[in-house]
Specification:
With 304 residues, the protein is of the alpha/beta class. It has a domain of 210 residues: NAD(P)-binding Rossmann-like Domain (Rossmann fold, 3-Layer(aba) Sandwich). Helix content is 41%, strand content 17%. The chain has a seven-stranded parallel β-sheet, sandwiched between helices. The chain has a two-stranded parallel ribbon with strand order 7-10. The two termini are 28 Å apart.
Length: 304
């Protein structure tokens, strides 16, 4: 299959494109961050410009498209709401329309943050209630894609992994500080169910191969507080866990409002795909093995 990945220099986009390149012809679309010696073809494009999406699809002629392009920084979305709307609503809507015209299959990446986190254990039928500009625009983006392309997959995700700049994921933030013996805080009251980016990428490819469509929660099968997530990383990597200070979200200085309990059910995914998502411990172990195999250095060597 010929796969087009938008946002191919981002945390998910890059790891997904690398995984997919083992079995598929991959074209990665990037905006600012060009890639050096990537194992897939790279096209630079500003997808919010008129005609850019049509040109990209014409150049790549994909069978599958996975849209990882987004403004995903919560604080940036609060500071630049118009840009957030362009990247998180207007771009995916236009992409969904044009992909549908060409007959390719589309996966659009959304977020667990569409929920307010007041109850947790959310299924796909639960009513979202976004708390931040980021979450709001991602929800509207979901709705725009679903209305524009009825065959699309909309995947609500949370992930970690190794990134191009080495600072994109929560796991990297923990490792960077712990390795420097820096004291850091972890939220004891914020729960999430992240997948390793590579594992998430494989699941998304399986969803395309099985031709399922609609809204899915694509998460690890178990969840953790962010503090406990950091503690597990410290144990795996052999760092001093006492550097981690347990705090409440209410004690932080973050601007954008965040949800507390983002535990999501994956029963629908398991039933329709026939695959149980990985558990969090196995994802963390693979993340550590990637470190031992110098995978972070391989990724960062692609940075121009």
């Amino acid at each position: 299959m010929r796969l087009l990945v938008t946002g191919a220099s981002g945390l998910l986009g890059l790891n997904l494109a690398i995984e997919a390149s083992h079995e598929h012809e991959v074209i990665g679309s990037v905006y600012r961050n060009l890639l050096n010696n990537a194992p897939f073809k790279v096209i630079q494009s500003d997808l919010v410009q008129p005609g850019a999406i049509e040109e990209l699809l014409e150049m790549s002629r994909p069978d599958w498209v996975i849209n990882c392009a987004a403004l995903a920084n919560l604080e940036a979305c609060e500071a630049q709401p118009e840009l957030a709307e362009k990247l998180n609503i207007e771009l995916p809507e236009k992409l969904a329309q044009d992909v549908a015209k060409g007959g390719a299959r589309l996966v659009h990446i959304s977020t667990d943050a569409v929920f307010d986190g007041r109850k947790g254990d959310y299924s796909e039928t639960d009513q979202p209630n976004p708390l931040s500009k980021y979450a709001e625009t991602k929800l509207y983006g979901e709705q725009a894609v679903a209305a524009s392309n009825t065959d699309a997959v909309i995947a609500r995700v949370n992930l970690f992994g190794w990134s191009l700049g080495g600072k994109r994921s929560l796991a990297e933030w923990f490792i960077n500080n712990l390795s420097a013996s820096q004291e850091i805080s972890g939220f004891t009251d914020v729960y999430f169910c992240p997948l390793l980016a590579n594992d998430l990428g494989k699941l998304l490819l399986d969803m395309l191969a099985h031709r399922i469509s609609g809204l899915y929660h694509v998460m690890s099968q178990d969840c953790s507080s962010k503090y406990d997530f950091g503690v597990k990383l410290a144990e795996l990597f052999g760092y001093d866990g006492s550097l981690l200070r347990p705090i409440s979200l209410a004690d932080s200085e973050l601007i954008a409002e965040r949800s507390l309990n983002l535990t999501l059910k994956t029963d629908k995914l398991t039933n329709d795909l026939g695959i149980v998502p990985p558990d969090l411990d196995s994802c963390l172990e693979r993340f550590h093995q990637q470190y031992l195999d110098r995978y972070p250095q391989e990724i960062q060597a692609m940075k121009v």
